[in-house]
Amino acid sequence: MTMRDVEASSRAPVRRVVIAGGGTAGWMAAAALSKVLGRAIEVTLVESEEIGTVGVGEATIPTLVTFHRLLEIDEQAFMSAVQGTIKLGISFENWLEPGHRYIHSFGTSGRDHWSAGFQHFWLRGRELGIASGYEDYCVELLAGLEDRFAHLPRNGINYAYHMDAAHYARFLREFSARHGARRVEGKIVEVRTDAASGDITALRLENGDEIEGDLFIDCTGFRALLIGRTLNVGYDDWSHWLFNDSALATQTTAVRDAVPYTRAIAGGAGWQWRIPLQHRVGNGIVYSSRYMADDEAKHAFLSSLEGEVMRDPWPIRFRPGQRQKAWHKNCVALGLAGSFVEPLESTTIHLIQRGILHLVKAFPQTITAVAVDEYNARLAEELQHVRDFVVMHYHLTRRDDTPYWRAITQMEIPPTLRHRIELFRETGSVFHVPGELFGENSWIQVMMGQGVVPKRYHPTADVMAPEDLTRFLDDIRTYVRTTADQLPAHMDYMRRYAPAP
Ligand code: FAD
User: Keyword set for this entry (predicted)?
Assistant: First the structure.
């Protein structure tokens, strides 16, 4: 027996799961574990109203729709509760250069041939002068640009949500309670560990209560009370690729109907988000404190807002990177306690969800080192792809108007990302690694949106006679146009489908 086997065999079966923290990560974990494993385990969540949550995280990606389906969450009830709107993609403004805009949508462009993606046919069509803009071949892209939405029965429409994060936590809290999860209010003042194994044994609260458990999930946000401060798991810092380390967030009243996309507007030393909900707009500025002073950021932020400011902007400091192990001993870190790639592509809630799904699938009768290693390897790999995708938005800029952007253009990028971009530039091809979040369409839309024009296309596209290619492209464009034409205005639909309570 190896030391690792001895460690595993000395552990008790996992019956009591204790979740530390009641932000989005904590309540998503409680909801999923209580729903899926409810009777087999006890789920207890500890949260502190006094400490509160980070208060952001309101834009999502389509995988959340799937997560809700798995949990059998009623979409209309959810959307009403969170005063949600639809997100068909992200509008990137001023990223390539000031005044430029493109949309990264959740849709699929055109139709692929098994040997080559649609972009090859489109590239040849461009060369022949018979293809129009890339947005004309993707329903989600066109619908987003034209502010339209409805659920579509045939072929569907790929969408995500904008939601009120505080309402979402409350919604999941009620959901979890219905499935047997227990909530404890209190501040954790000590994390107790076993001297011999180093495992966590209990959380001691300010009022003296102790919450014992077999498996602990650290959802304490940037504090990382269990995985970081107690178990001392290190953190890989990615700030040499992702320069931003600060944010200010606030909420404003809505001055117009919500559009079905998030806006990400690049500025002199970072960018701003606009997340339109039914009743208000979530706003934030993300910036690098090396290149912009806090008061300068605050001034730039407040002077750019529309509508009435509903809350004083609150500051957030962060360090992009990942915990060296998401799971260590009997503790799993989810959410901000585990990793943070900055919020540009709204990926953290997705990564929380992936952590939960992997945990549910690998749920241990008893914790074994080999299962822990597998979990850590899977999550680290998925996170690396997300990191590369986000870094790409910065790397592919043509901006050199401020020291921040000039420093970015000098930045060395991860070799994995360099390979993807080079491959696309040289051949027009992209690839999708199993389990990776962003599909080929996402890579293509962002690379082309940020000015990468492939030098070549696949020879399959030459096999089609020009008149066949014209028909092929026209058919798709007509389908996209007629589908978009059937869709009502986004907010007209939402007010009927999921009115605010
Ligand atoms: P938190 O929300 O910070 O929750 C931590 C919990 O732990 C709280 O309940 C707190 O009270 C509790 N806690 C901490 N210490 C103690 C203690 N001692 N005792 C008891 N309880 C304690 N993600 C997206 O997917 N989309 C986005 O658009 C997006 N935008 C973002 C913008 C910014 C600027 C930042 C920083 C992040 C953004 N994220 C986004 C990430 C998003 O915020 C997180 O995914 C989400 O909020 C989950 O946070 P969390 O639950 O890990 O932490």
Answer: Oxidoreductase
